[in-house]
Amino acid sequence: MASVALSEAEKVYIVHGVQEDLRVDGRGCEDYRCVEVETDVVSNTSGSARVKLGHTDILVGVKAEMGTPKLEKPNEGYLEFFVDCSANATPEFEGRGGDDLGTEIANTLYRIFNNKSSVDLKSLCISPREHCWILYVDVLLLECGGNLFDAISIAVKAALFNTRIPKVRVLEDEEGSKDIELSDDPYDCIRLSVENVPCIVTLCKIGYRHVVDATLQEEACSLASLLVSVTSKGVVTCMRKVGKGSLDPESIFEMMEGSSARLAAPLGHFPAAPYQLVTD
Amino acid sequence: MAMEMRLPVPRKPVSESLGRETKKHLVVPGDTITTDTGFMRGHGTYIGEEKLIASVAGPVERVNKLICVKALKTRYNGEVGDIVVGRITEVQQKRWKVETNSRLDSVLLLSSMNLPGGELRRRSAEDELAMRGFLQEGDLISAEVQAVFSDGAVSLHTRSLKYGKLGQGVLVQVPPSLVKRQKTHFHDLPCGASVILGNNGFIWIYPTPEHKEEDAGGFIANLEPVSLADREVISRLRNCIVSLVTQRMLLYDTSILYCYEASLPHQIKDILKPEVMEEIVMETRQRLLEQEG
């Protein structure tokens, strides 16, 4: 993760501020920065989205391609994730520097989507065992300003909402060979339902309290974070601890019950009503 | 607890300040400034196809026969006598490398640093070994530019009690061209915090110390918790400075103070919303114009 150097006194200032629920930019411990979401930004993809969360800038493109289903799940399509940490974000990502972070984020995305309810994979099937839609989700990190996982999950959700998969018809010949026909009309497509796509909430432990949406400076002061992926109905699909510090089981319970439960509803209403100021 | 999402809106162009009669001639790289060959070319220009062409984006400045373009967004170019705030990146033999948002890291020589207690003596080998005890990687210092080397690197000194290691506070990074050159860059604002406006674009906001300590350069950092009232002032100032920078206003003590006063009706975290930012900066601009006129 990109990191900033901070002096001891600055770290002490940040930690004491978090204990008193007043962060450096005036937010409380459970306040997010303003998020800007834009969809349909890349023209040659099936769906795309760009999310700006403070100084973090993420671009996601989804391409739908036809392929063969996996052997163990012949009636379903699937998603493939790829994360590219571009050197634009920070000089640390130059060359192969961003690969570790990229694979970590991609693995987290695989984990949070690894359940039956997030995306209706059966709707991606064209003909069982032969053809299905594969959605290649490509994430590009343009700028790194802290709280990457949250922004990426919001962007992936918005891009999936924006994805248009063309409708196909399977025609049977007399000899039995199948022919796939794509409809010519660009508006004749199926859209995915993203109601149950989870969003990630990162809770960074700073001192004795935890904060949501940490900036780079706050991340430098925190030793351990908890990543919780939660849907709008409050269902937790994945939980992960990152960082070299330790978390008390009591505090994990408190973090999950408190923050992620409260944030599930506001995150869930998006992207249907992106202009709303949702408060609790 | 709130989470706000919005669609991106095109940014409104910064409105021209109302009192100015002469419009500045703004150029972007590649623009022709003049086809008259009688002018000498200065910084930010080059001659191509018998025309004078700009190589940076900014206003054209003309002094008699010399034409130059002053870049709006640039790295800090050091000049002797500037006050800078920098972060230590490396500890080397007999000197520290300081990051000051310039093209090359600045240099702080061990001999340019005040010893604790203010003693004056030649630096010995023990001082060299104890360098990390004074300043470590990541520490923030305030210093003055002593000299500029031929390659553009800047040499700093902290030979006064007002410079030295910085304690608790908040650092804001702004483009160097937005910091106005003034007589003094250390300000004790009446709202209850102090601010150091570094010429290199690093702005340091910190709680006003109760009494002026006489220890040289504040090497012993005060790590006691800062009171909540002071923290609110510091956070509000930080957000005000960020909003002034977004609207490209010059930063000096008066503009920061007026912006702070204009932001008082709003909550601290609301100041970062685009509509509120525009409103308070508009009010600040009005007050500054009234004060001039």
UniProtKB/TrEMBL annotation, chain A:
Keyword Amino-acid biosynthesis recorded: no
Family as reported in the entry's similarity comment: Belongs to the RNase PH family.
Domain Exoribonuclease phosphorolytic: 32-166, 196-257
Compartments reported by the entry: Cytoplasm; Nucleus, Nucleolus
UniProt keywords, alphabetically: Cytoplasm, Exosome, rRNA processing
Record-linked PANTHER family: EXOSOME COMPLEX COMPONENT RRP42, EXOSOME COMPLEX EXONUCLEASE RIBOSOMAL RNA PROCESSING PROTEIN
Organism for this UniProt entry: Vicugna pacos (Alpaca)
Superkingdom to which the source organism belongs: Eukaryota
Protein name per its UniProtKB record: Ribosomal RNA-processing protein 42
Claim: NAD is one of the keywords in the record: no
Automatic annotation (TrEMBL), chain B:
Domain RRP4 S1: 75-146
Family: Belongs to the RRP4 family.
Quaternary organization: Component of the RNA exosome core complex (Exo-9), composed of EXOSC1, EXOSC2, EXOSC3, EXOSC4, EXOSC5, EXOSC6, EXOSC7, EXOSC8 and EXOSC9; within the complex interacts with EXOSC4 and EXOSC7. The catalytically inactive RNA exosome core complex (Exo-9) associates with the catalytic subunit EXOSC10/RRP6. Exo-9 may associate with DIS3 to form the nucleolar exosome complex, or DIS3L to form the cytoplasmic exosome complex. Exo-9 is formed by a hexameric base ring consisting of the heterodimers EXOSC4-EXOSC9, EXOSC5-EXOSC8 and EXOSC6-EXOSC7, and a cap ring consisting of EXOSC1, EXOSC2 and EXOSC3.
Primary location: cytoplasm
Keyword flag Nucleotidyltransferase: no
Stretches for region Disordered: 1-20
Name under which the protein is recorded: Exosome complex component RRP4
Molecular-function GO term, any one: RNA binding
InterPro entries: Exosome_cplx_N_dom (IPR025721), Exosome_RNA_bind1/RRP40/RRP4 (IPR026699), KH_dom_type_1 (IPR004088), KH_dom_type_1_sf (IPR036612), NA-bd_OB-fold (IPR012340), S1_RRP4 (IPR048565)
Domain K Homology: 169-209
Pfam family, one: S1_RRP4
Gene Ontology BP terms: CUT catabolic process; exonucleolytic trimming to generate mature 3'-end of 5.8S rRNA from tricistronic rRNA transcript (SSU-rRNA, 5.8S rRNA, LSU-rRNA); nuclear polyadenylation-dependent rRNA catabolic process; poly(A)-dependent snoRNA 3'-end processing; TRAMP-dependent tRNA surveillance pathway; U4 snRNA 3'-end processing
Keyword line: Cytoplasm, Exosome, Nucleus, Phosphoprotein, RNA-binding, rRNA processing
Domain Exosome complex component N-terminal: 26-63
Cellular localisation: Cytoplasm; Nucleus, Nucleolus
One Gene Ontology CC term in the entry: nuclear exosome (RNase complex)
Claim: Phosphoprotein is one of the keywords in the record: yes
